Amino acid sequence: MNLLVVDDEVELGSVVATEVAKVLAAAEFATLGLATGSTPQPAYRALIQMCRDGELSLANNNAFLLDEYFGLPASHYESFAATIQRDFVHGVDFPNGTVKSLDGMTDNAAATCLDYEHAIQASGGIDVQLLGIGRNGHIAFNEPGSALDSRTRMVELTQETIAVNGAANFDQFQPTHALTMGVGTILEGRYLIMMASGPAKATAVQQALEGPVDSACPASAVQTHENVLVVLDRAAAAQLS
Ligand code: F6R
Known about the structure:
By secondary structure, the chain is of the alpha/beta class. It has helices at residues 9-26, 41-52, 80-87, 109-122, 159-164, 183-187, 202-210; strands spanning 2-6, 30-34, 61-65, 67-69, 99-100, 128-131, 153-156, 177-180, 192-196, 228-233. β2, α2 and β3 (61-65) form a beta-alpha-beta unit. The protein contains seven helices and ten strands. The strands form two sheets. Strands 1-10-9-6-2-3-5 form a seven-stranded parallel β-sheet, with helices on one face. It has a three-stranded antiparallel β-sheet with strand order 4-8-7. The structure holds fructose -6-phosphate. Fructose -6-phosphate binds at residues 35-39, 66-67, 80, 132-134, 138-140.
């Protein structure tokens, strides 16, 4: 595992965007795995800037989102599908329809999740997977207790995750469940880039990187992957030995 501790968000964004650009430059066609949430925002801004400056194109690429709230249509402002569109996709040049997300309105979650796994495989697998980490050690919506070989599935969200994500305040919608790529699905990505910033992540980061590989901290599974870059700001790295 490679670990980089950076000074601030701008540097975090620039390091991650540079890594993503390297993977894209080396492949004729590459598949990205995208995280939503606040942590990857600087990286998305940096990637958008690279596209605007003509240094990068995503015209030969596609992407899969990690997760989605169950019961929320993609058209809802708070859905991850809508969020990634606003935060990233609108500013880059993925071909239309090539950024896929889990259907939060499905009436057959098991089939939807299996289809998602098949779609990832059909696209050749994920070349570079961006990951944040939850304060409780979750990756995607794999909450503590998730099996480290879990696959894409419906999960119940913890009250903490619902509160931290501000999801309790969504307009006329209270999420209790989500669809998420599994830990095992994520580990099949060829290159994982995990990011964390801010003091609220310091304990989870320490457990994930220095604690036992254990489903109590799903992010600890990254220790078992042979091609991982972890990019932290100083506050998130503060509890590392
Ligand atoms: C979002 C996701 C989550 C977030 C995590 C951290 O797609 O998969 O695991 O990465 O909750 O969220 P932020 O970055 O908002 O602190």
